[in-house]
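User: tokens in, sequence out, please.
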């Protein structure tokens, strides 16, 4: 609930009459942490199943997990059309 309140306060989640787009994520490990514009969204496995709705715009997404290099990508949510799934490729940190 707290995460939802934070997302709404920063305008990341679609609400009201703003057109929402479902953004899905694909990748491993399932317990990797996903942030959008430095705001925690959830674990990768959960977002792979349910996704997150975002307003049209451009967002910086970071996926992190202990033992892996961070994965950063810019996601553009268009006003028209669908959003392709974000393919997450975490690279293990060598021993």
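Assistant: Sequence out:
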């Amino acid at each position: 609930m707290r995460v939802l309140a934070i997302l709404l306060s920063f305008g990341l989640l679609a609400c009201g009459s703003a057109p929402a787009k479902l953004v899905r994520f694909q990748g491993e490990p399932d317990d990797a942490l996903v942030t959008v514009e430095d705001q925690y969204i959830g674990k990768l496995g959960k977002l792979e199943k349910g996704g997150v709705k975002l307003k049209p715009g451009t967002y910086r997404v970071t996926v992190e997990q202990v033992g892996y290099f961070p994965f950063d990508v810019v996601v553009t949510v268009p006003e028209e059309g669908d959003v392709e799934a974000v393919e997450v490729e975490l690279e293990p940190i060598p021993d």
